[in-house]
Design goal:
The complex is a heterodimer of chains A (about 120) and B (about 110). By secondary structure, chain A is an all-beta fold. Chain A has strands at about 5, 10-15, 20-25, 30-35, 45-50, 55, 65-70, 75-80, 90-95, 105, 110-115. Chain A is about 0% helix and about 50% strand. Chain B has about 110 residues and is mainly β. Chain B has strands spanning about 5, 10-15, 20, 25, 35-40, 45-50, 55-60, 65-70, 75-80, 85-95, 100-105, 110-114. The chains are: A mainly beta (about 120), B mainly beta (about 110).
């Protein structure tokens, strides 16, 4: 079956531009997560959705970052007025939490480069 | 707060020799622990998980890990390294129940020498 897909795979933005990153989770997965992975680092949590509800956005680094999942499926991470420090790989993951098993399935990521 | 420490940023082994990637965790809860592998330009792939069942966990591609509560460790091992094992490995602890968000270690880059 299809895994988690993300688009675009690569994005180059000039400083100050807005970008939108898309995530298509595995069909039927209730939970969706966004992570940011800086070069040479482990991924860091950004935000979490359960269906369409954004239950945790404690990892969003500034108010320039915004995420939505309006119909409980596809999610978009938007970054306004991009800065060089936003350059990273943005990973999306989905899961279907059941008792005792809630591993996350990751997409290939979107590599954002801000010039 | 939950955290993981991967004790080695780089590990080099010869093909056919054992692999040991070390991970220590800190958790206020009964933790769920995972190992993921990341090949270049590929997504993160789950190797194995511990969720309070058996303390010795077997995963894919011959990897296994042992949960040791007294040592707060979850080291990843493989008896015999293969060239295809060269990748970045991440130890992960799941945050408190309810959100299941992951806390990642900083990663260990495994190099396999011919």
């Amino acid at each position: 079956g299809a895994g988690v897909s993300q688009s675009p795979r690569y994005k180059v933005a000039k400083r100050g531009q807005d970008v939108a990153l898309r995530c298509d989770p595995i069909s039927g997965h209730v939970s969706l997560f966004w992570y940011q992975q800086a070069l040479g680092q482990g991924p860091e949590f950004l935000t979490y959705f359960q269906n369409e509800a954004q239950l945790d956005k404690s990892g969003l680094p500034s108010d320039r970052f915004f995420a939505e999942r309006p119909e409980g499926s596809v999610s978009t991470l938007k970054i306004q007025r991009t800065q060089q420090e936003d350059s990273a790989v943005y990973l999306c993951a989905s899961s279907f939490p059941t008792s005792g098993s809630y591993e996350q399935y990751f997409g290939p990521g979107t590599r954002l480069t801000v010039t | 707060a939950q955290s993981v420490t991967q004790l080695d940023s780089h590990v080099s082994v010869s093909e056919g020799t054992p692999v040991l990637l070390r991970c220590n965790y800190s958790s206020s809860y009964s933790p769920s622990l995972f190992w993921y592998v990341q090949h270049p330009n590929k997504g993160l792939q789950l190797l194995l998980k511990y969720t309070s069942a058996a303390t010795l966990v077997k995963g894919i591609n011959g990897f296994e890990a042992e949960f040791k509560k007294s040592e707060t460790s979850f080291h990843l091992t493989k008896p015999s390294a293969h060239m295809s094992d060269a990748a970045e490995y991440f130890c992960v602890v799941s945050d408190q129940p309810g959100t299941y968000k992951y806390i990642f270690g900083t990663g260990t880059r495994l190099k396999v020498l011919a």
